[in-house]
Amino acid sequence: MVNNSEFKILVVDDEIFNVEVVQGFLEDEEYQVYYETHPKQALARIFKESFDLILLDINMPELNGLELAKRVKNDPQTKDIPIMFLSAMNDTETITQAFNEGGVDYITKPFNGLELLARVKTHIELRHYIKELEKKQEKLAQIISTDPLTSLPNRLRFLSMIKQETKKITESPSRLSLMHLRVDKLDKLNSIYGFRAVDKAVLLLSQLLRKSLDQKYTVCRVYGSEFTVIMPDTSLESAKAIAKKLLLLIKENENSNIKLTCSIGVEEYLLGEECDKFLFRVNKLLHEASENGGDQLQ
């Protein structure tokens, strides 16, 4: 059920009498009602605050409602706010233009109070359902892109993040290194200790990585036995030094009953390089470290 008191409505009309009439109807339904009688001040307020619905007059001095609506709809931060026009102008050309400028509804003055409330209710409920849908989509996206065991970003999110990082460097050159880490002989460990025990060891490893690394680094679990660490503003030399320390920390981790070792590949991004090629180079080094017996850095 929609709670009207949660929604903010802005009334914009240069005639204070019109504002008071509309305000009275809306406040009786317990909406949060705000108003502006100067269109330029209204525009500044819309960009500054957050509203769920705008009731907008057209014929106003300095800045008419059609132009105000156009500016609101052209701004990425405010373009989704629904605009309902309240105007004495009832010609087809004006009404058509109002919808073309992004209006979702149009009521001519003088209006019927019950009709106004019914239309406001429709757009507020629609706004409510859209917000609820966006929340569910965000939650679903979070679930889809998160590893269920470690709560780290998974492969899907890692690929999106590394592409963003390489794009960022192309636009503003800096250093970027990537560490790819694989738990050695995970299948053998599963057969000896069982999946639950090994899962617990992998979870402890993920916690060790997060605790040991700088907060500017992002740890991801990309496969069952593999982690990556995105390392912005970090040279290859620095990344390798960090990786060497990690090898020792992992081997000496006293919190885990299962002693793990890891193979690590580290590379630095080359400016202008395709992201896939960068990932291939890191994976190749990881494979070499694993094939050479593991518990080492390449």
Short descriptors:
single chain; about 300 residues; alpha/beta; Rossmann fold; Alpha-Beta Plaits; 2 domains; five-stranded parallel β-sheet; five-stranded mixed β-sheet; 10 helices; 10 strands; elongated
Describe this structure in words.
This protein has helices at about 15-30, 40-50, 65-75, 90-100, 115-145, 155-170, 185-195, 195-210, 235-250, 275-290, and strands spanning about 10, 30-35, 55, 85, 105-110, 175-185, 220, 225-230, 260-270, 295. By secondary structure, it is an alpha/beta fold. It has 2 domains: about 5-140, Response regulator (Rossmann fold), CATH 3.40.50.2300; about 155-295, Alpha-Beta Plaits, CATH 3.30.70. The strands form 2 sheets. The protein has a 5-stranded parallel beta sheet, sandwiched between helices. Strands 7-8-6-9-10 form a 5-stranded mixed beta sheet, sandwiched between helices. Helix 2 (about 40-50) packs parallel to helix 3. The chain starts with 7 loop residues before the first strand and ends with a strand.
Q: Trace the largest sheet across and list its strands.
A: 2-1-3-4-5
What is the end-to-end distance?
Answer: 59 Å
CATH architecture of the largest domain: 2-Layer Sandwich
Helical content (DSSP H or I, runs of 4+): 40-55%
Q: How would you spell out the order of helices and strands? A: EHEHEHEHEHHEHHEEHEHE
Instruction: Write down how many β-strands occur, each being a DSSP E stretch of 2 or more residues.
Output: 10
Number of distinct helices:
10
Main sheet, how many strands, which sense, barrel? Answer: 5 strands, parallel
Low-confidence stretches: none
- Helix/strand-derived category reads alpha/beta
